[in-house]
Amino acid sequence: MWLLFLLLAWAAAVVSCVRVCRTAFAAGQALHRAACAPPDAVPAADDTGGDLTLYETAYLSGGPHRLADVVLVLMAQQQRLHLAHTGWATVVDPVGQDPVERAALTAIGPDGQRRIASIRRALSSADAVRGLADRLVRTGLAAPAAVRTGIGSAVRQVQGAALVVLLAAGATYWMAPSGEEDRLVLAWFALPLILTLGTWAVARAEAHPYTDWATEAGAARLRHEHHGGRARRPGPAPAGLTGLALHGPAVLADPGLRAALHSSGA
């Protein structure tokens, strides 16, 4: 019986580790193709050819959820939204000044009030946000969605394989008859366990270029353009928004806004 458990452990370990390697290789190729895209493949839009906008900075730094936080705080600072410390957003002025603001108002809905966590989820699939993300991917600044989800799924499979190995070893130890060399039997499970845990550790250390929202080029662009703490957007940018876009809600000076975003899961 223990041979069956050992075969199961090895199968789970090998399949999951091979998948991580293949996914990482495919992700590297996809990022390389994005970085080497010819200039004529890049749309001639103002927000891709010049400095990064505030929305692009937020997306490259923290993805669509960070972008949602930025547009909500922007509208709150302009008194067009009210963000309660309980995590609710209430519409004050239902007129959006750009496509992302209009998408945020649509996400809030006709009732004029919705939880911020739900707004984030709705904005993630909004056409305005997807269009911004696609432009950043085509310019080689943002990682393709398939890269991020593929690596994350492969790493989770390795974690599951490690758990399968441990469960198989435990079942073998529990079912082994008395007098059998339990230590020798369990030693055979050490190899697939080392394989899965080692692959998991390497993936955690090396997968950040594939799981970050920005590519290496995008991260370098962020460092270059925001070394002085500036971000471009149509019209004046209220204080603190660049820091929010780059570093998240913890840098906001307004405790009420911090509480509103943190209470909604930021």
Order of helices and strands: HHHEEHEHHHHHHHH
Number of domain units: 2
Write out the strand line-up for the largest beta sheet, numbering strands in chain order.
1-2-3
Q: What number is the mean pLDDT?
A: 81
Uncertain residue segments: 39-48, 229-238
**Main beta sheet:** 3 strands, antiparallel
Task: Walk me through the structure.
The chain has 266 residues and is mainly alpha-helical. It has two domains: 103 residues; 136 residues, no CATH class. Helices cover 67% and strands 4% of the residues. The protein is built from twelve helices and three strands, in the order αααββαβαααααααα. A three-stranded antiparallel β-sheet has the order 1-2-3. Helix 1 runs antiparallel to helix 7, helix 1 packs parallel to helix 8 and helix 7 runs antiparallel to helix 8. It is elongated, with a radius of gyration of 24 Å. The termini are far apart. About 8% of the residues have low confidence.
Task: Compile the SSE list and pairings.
Elements (H helix, E strand, L loop, with lengths): L1 H34 L10 H4 L4 H24 L3 E3 L4 E4 L7 H10 L4 E3 H9 L2 H12 L6 H31 L6 H25 L1 H4 L4 H10 L15 H7 L7 H8 L4
Antiparallel strand pairs: 1-2, 2-3
Short description:
This protein has 266 residues and is mainly alpha-helical. The chain has helices at residues 2-35, 46-49, 54-77, 99-108, 116-124, 127-138, 145-175, 182-206, 208-211, 216-225, 241-247, 255-262, and strands at 81-83, 88-91, 113-115.
